[in-house]
Amino acid sequence: MIELKKIEPTKSNLKKFTLFQTDLYKGNKYFIPALLSDDVATLSPEKNPAFDFCDAIYYMAYKDGKPVGRIAGIINRQVNEKHNGATARFGFIDFIDDPEVSKALITAVEDWAREKGMKKIIGPMGFTDMDHEGMLIEGFEELGTMATIYNYDYYPRHLEALGYEKEADWVEFLMEVPDAIPEKYNRIADIVKKKYGLKVKKYTNRKKAKAEIGYPLFHLINDAYDGLYEYSHLTDRQIEYYIDVYLGLLNLDLLTAIADKNDNLIGIGISIPSMSRALQKSRGKYFPFGWYHLLKGLKGKNDRVDLLLVAVKPEYQNKGVNALLFQDLIPYYIKYGFKYAESNLELETNNKVQGQWDYFKNRQHRRRRAYKKML
Fold first, then answer.
1. Sequence-distant contacts of 13-19: CB under 8 A, at least 24 apart
2. What pLDDT, in 10s, does the model give residues 55-82?
């Protein structure tokens, strides 16, 4: 008998909701736990500014008194208004390999979505694109990253048995960091600089970086990602939140800004040393000793770098600006001893973005999917 409980978003409840995933994957060498405090903040209406335009509901499933699954139902009103749609999302979904459990969780969110007047449901998706999205369908024996979801291989089978179909796929690539900047990248970057009057901007002072590119960075993301699948524009309140969350952690060597002749930000590339092993060792917690592993992940020896974000203003896309970003970043990758670089999620149809990896030895090592179902 499956017992389903609606979870009120108190801090203690959200901790239990988040820790269910960590417990479910205990001992799995590919799973990367979320940072507990980050997930709790994301799920909290008091903390996450996305609740200005989102509704959410949380459920946990229990069997014989033990937790066996969790799910969030989300409605992003901003995106629905943008597309004149009535779409709900499911996310933060995890469950044991029991069809009764997955059915109970999914059915609860579907019923909630119908009550709210929704006609379609998609997922796994978060509140916005700053959250994890896409169910892993290929690459179950690849180490995950802090920016992506890991799930067991039975998850897609459960969803498909419940009538869910493919809505969109993302692919990810693992590149080998070259010993030097590829000659073609150098050539393209030099041409682009001269042709458009562009310049590379680097920062050594975190306060100055926040002041000069904090807001422009996230407005640039809004412009660059506007046409992507289910993109949710970041509001000023969200931007203020993410400036504090992200810019305070970055290694400024791995942040490259591109400006035009009027000093306007037109491109950004942000990388971060892989935090995968550090998060595994800390189990997603700062205390009592997690801070040591997380700090070591940021500052210590590491052979992987995550390409956290690349964004270019629409009018400069497909003009070689990415070559300018990597012309600057690759020497830093070499300096820090990175051997491999992980791409972020890229829509499988985005051939232009994927084409930039042709200059590196690479392999497409993961694929993930957003599913859909009409209600």
1. 13/58, 14/39, 14/40, 14/43, 14/44, 14/58, 15/40, 16/60, 16/67, 17/43, 17/58, 17/60, 17/70, 17/92, 18/43, 18/284
2. 999 999 999 999 999 999 999 999 999 9
pTM for this prediction: 0.93
Q: Which residues pair with 369 in a beta bridge?
A: 135, 169
User: 272 forms bridges with which residues in the sheet?
Assistant: 306
For residue 39, the one-letter residue type is D
Residue 235: which of 78, 355, 34 has the closest Cα? 78
